[in-house]
Write a structure and sequence with these properties.
Layout lengths: L1 H14 L7 H23 L8 H6 L1 H23 L9 H27 L8 H21 L1
Helix pairs in contact: 2-4, 2-6, 5-6
Length: 149
């Protein structure tokens, strides 16, 4: 009896109309998953795509370790965002949480890369403008989704 009620409740909940995720937001999560998966490979290998100064990477075991740690922490976030992509970014609680974390993460990436280049005078990534543009676009689309989708 109790099992039947749970099945009925689940069927009733799953059959209710849920808002459709905007195509731009679906594209956002899909592109982020694909590109951040590629980043996993780039960070693990220290590829010249992002790191043209190979001498620094080859000479520092600590740098290689922290690059791989960055890959390990960013990939699950991208995968989680992709797996939860069907929750509407504005009309569901899960969607708002995922969208907010997504926007915050990519806005923070823009801030970190910009600070490192201009204020800190530290390491500069190759393809700076492309990377900052992509993260900025992702953050902007996520904010649009949170505010008006």
């Amino acid at each position: 009896m109790r099992g039947q009620m749970l099945i009925y409740s689940f069927e009733k909940a799953s059959s209710s109309a849920s808002p459709v995720q905007p195509k731009l937001i679906r594209l956002l999560y899909n592109s982020a998953c694909v590109i951040l998966t590629a980043d996993l490979f780039i960070f693990y290998t220290g590829s010249r795509l992002l790191f043209p100064e190979q001498e620094e990477i080859r000479s520092s075991a600590a740098l290689r370790f922290f690059l791989r740690c960055a890959a390990n922490t960013s990939f699950p976030f991208a995968l989680c965002s992709w797996l939860l992509r069907d929750y509407h970014i504005r009309h569901t609680h899960v969607g708002r949480v995922v969208g907010s974390c997504f926007a915050l993460s990519h806005a923070a990436s823009v801030a970190l890369y910009s600070w490192s280049r201009w204020v800190g005078g530290e390491y500069q990534l190759a393809n700076f403008w492309g990377i900052v543009g992509l993260h900025g676009t992702w953050a902007g689309i996520a904010l649009w989704g949170l505010l008006s989708a």
